[in-house]
Amino acid sequence: MTAVNLIAKVYDTAKTKDGKTHFIDVQVDGRDHRGTGQTNLHLTSDRTTTDDGTVRYENRAPYSAGQLQEIMAAAGPTQWPLLSKQDGRPIGTMYGFKADVTPASRGSGLVVNTNTAGPSEFTVGATTLDHQFDCMRAARRTSAGEPGTTPTGFSQVADPESNVEVGEPAVG
Hints:
The protein is of the alpha+beta class and 172 residues long. The protein has 2 helices and 8 strands; from the N terminus they run βββββαβββα. Mean pLDDT is 86; it is low at 148-172.
């Protein structure tokens, strides 16, 4: 897919000790026409089971420090701090940008081609992640046969290129 509006959640501690690799949760922006109706906006979503049997999904994929710099440069001022739910301190940054995405050569899901990164059509802010969850929740309700509603601030207007299929990242 080309020129997809994306959101990258970059946590300060989600990197290797040498800082050469960062583990980033990249999502299709729910406001992008390719995100409409998707039950999972994460580019990568790998199912894992913890020692106590709890099922979780790992949504981060490895990107090099150089790729992170390209994402940050493309986002420019389109960024917002990620805050701890416990004490409100900054724990990372959310970036809005646009880039091409391709199937991952290793693992599952999709990855960002950071060579094509540019500014997003949308801003990010305090309610962006809430909107992301609202979009996924509405899509799940619609796919389950429940009447769905479009989250506030989002449009479901058909785009001439919207017949491009966006598959949900493989899990499990």
